[in-house]
Amino acid sequence: MQQNSPKTLVILGATSAVAIAYARHCIEKDGAIRFILAGRDETKTKTVLADLVGRGADETSSVVIGDLGSPDEVERLAGEILASAPAPDEMLLAYGLLGEQKALQASLPETAKLLETNFVSAAMWAEVFAQCFVEKGAGHIVIIGSVAGDRGRQSNYLYGATKGALERVAEGIAHRFAGSKYINVTLVKPGFIDTPMTDHIEGKGGPLWASPEKIAQVTYKAVRKRRVRVYAPWIWRYILLIVRALPVPVMHRTKM
Amino acid sequence: MADPILSWGRVHRFEQDVDILPRDATARGTLSETAFTGNESVIAHGLGRSYGDVALNEGGRVLLTPRHDFVLEANWETGLFRASAGLSLAQLHKITVPRGWFVPVTPGTKFVTLGGAVANDVHGKNHHQASSFGHHVTRLKLCRSDGEAMICSREENSEFFALTLGGLGLTGIIDWVEFQLKPIASSNLFVENIACPDLAGFFELSQESAAWPYTVMWVDCLAPEKARGRGIFTRGRPVDSGPLQPHDEEKSVKWPFTTPSFLLNPVTLKTFNALYRMRPGARFVGEQRYDPFFYPLDRIREWNKLYGKKGFFQHQAIIPMESGREGIAALLEAIEKAGQGSFLAVLKVHGPERSPGVMSFCREGVSLALDFANKGRKTLALLERLDAIVLEHGGRIYPAKDGHMSASFFQACYPQWTQLESARDPMISSSFWRRVTQND
């Protein structure tokens, strides 16, 4: 049997539920992939690595440990990642904080941390890999955004702002490489996902909640089709179409 | 959590607290502190495919395990596989089938966790050759509320090992399970479906098919007396070469609504059974993929809603060989007379039990599994009549499927229950266990 060298996939925030589901889904579909799993918690990240190798990931997959969400750390960690995988094929950016709007409103340091983690560092990572893929001539940047970025709403506008801003970055990179068939960006915008990050939300469950596996499936298909932007699942595209279209006086009478 | 935690029969609706066992509990060593908090008792709850109340805990807590799904070690040379107890067989097959390995024993749904397979010591169509799931388990890790973490096997902590297989989750929280996979050359099976005229025919076909690894019969339990035991006998064996392709869950459909109960009556049942017996696939002979062969009902997500708002009861009994014919005939007669038959009644000849499980359901004999829409007292009365027949013929019924049996009946069927009670973790309990151990 002829063995091509395996595809290399860098995952930033490898212990997040969506990242794990996506990595597993890619192995199911494509077989042996080499993963570079970056995460803050060494024990957790290594357990994810063992799981993926057990499921068929390439044996040379490895971990990089550090605080990805801290802008001061990006350059150093990027060096480490690119040292172990000089020419990756794909990067998935999956880390982020949800934050609690009321707590954020009451604390400037918390707000700064949310902005730095979800946007400042994330935009830097996107640039790091854009540059890397320019040098290589090919590559795919996949970013997990959120439907919350589509309109500022009282219940979570700071989180929404970070995801909305990240969308502008993704959009811009996609535009920058519009002429190149081999460098691509996909921004995935999930709605409610059933993960540990949302376990505290009251009234969780119901038809609008999707599993991380569902988000992974949508992401995989969108990446294969080189879509620039995709809502996950598709229903959110129409929900947000309505939310964005609400006139301000109407919007202000709602509590969303 | 908005939706209450139900079991598959949807009969028991309990107030209980719900916690989720996190994925990284093993890596962090925090499993027992997550599992045991406060003074409330707890029971592990996987994918909710047990029918009654073995995985429910009224007034206590249930610990949801399906997120706890890491693969820990996989040896593709030997087929020895170790994973966190929340991993489902559905996920397992996606990993193992492409590499030519399959679960050694599978129940009729792939949506069961490894922990659930151990706790109920599940069996499948190959019981006559392969015994129950527990026979293939090599090691497991048990976490107790006193903080002790035990590796259990046939050699090490062997008493806990034997009491945990079929131990209904009561001996501790199962952290991970290690077991031996079975090699397959293809994900397809060669299958024969044969019309069977009556009960005598079933026993003949079972004997004639003893060399086939998988055998089972769907039985028309509303058949009149002269055709009692008629059905479709199915036997299958893995083929020697072919594709190694895992199943595709995206192809399933969902039962669209909870069936109004007036649609569940003897006429619809008889019509269903007649159609089922005469449907085009009922005499199918040929190659079939493993998914429709082992898991026909998994095609319809939430098929349990077919039984309406009040849910349904399952009754699976096993009767020793020597009184098997008589016992099964008596059960079928009682059902036919009551006119409360089920859509999917299943008969199977079991082989000797080699699982070390002390409380395991299976033994050498014949089993009959039935489901009954919950029509209140009428249904409970029928179930009690069936229990009496089972007891009279020296049989017992399957806790994983039970939602009704009395304490005295249970204790008569499973006199060894006291061993499990003494090994039970004091912080673990279930509605089932309280029901069958507190004398009525």
SSE layout and pairings?
The complex is a heterodimer of chains A (256) and B (440).
Chain A: E1 8-12, H1 17-30, E2 34-39, H2 42-54, E3 62-65, H3 74-84, E4 90-93, H4 101-105, H5 108-136, E5 139-144, H6 157-176, E6 183-190, E7 192-193, E8 209-210, H7 212-224, E9 229-232, H8 235-245, H9 248-251
Helix pairs in contact in A: 1-7, 5-6
Chain B: E1 17-20, H1 25-28, H2 31-35, E2 42-45, E3 61-64, E4 71-75, E5 80-84, H3 89-96, E6 101-102, H4 114-119, H5 127-130, E7 137-143, E8 149-153, H6 158-164, E9 173-180, E10 182-183, E11 188-196, H7 199-208, E12 214-219, E13 231-238, E14 253-254, H8 266-278, E15 285-289, H9 290-294, E16 300-301, E17 312-320, H10 321-338, E18 345-350, E19 365-373, H11 377-392, E20 396-397, H12 407-413, H13 417-423, H14 431-437
Parallel strand pairs in B: 1-3, 2-3, 14-16
Antiparallel strand pairs in B: 4-5, 5-9, 6-10, 7-8, 7-9, 11-13, 11-15, 12-13, 12-18, 17-19, 17-20, 18-19
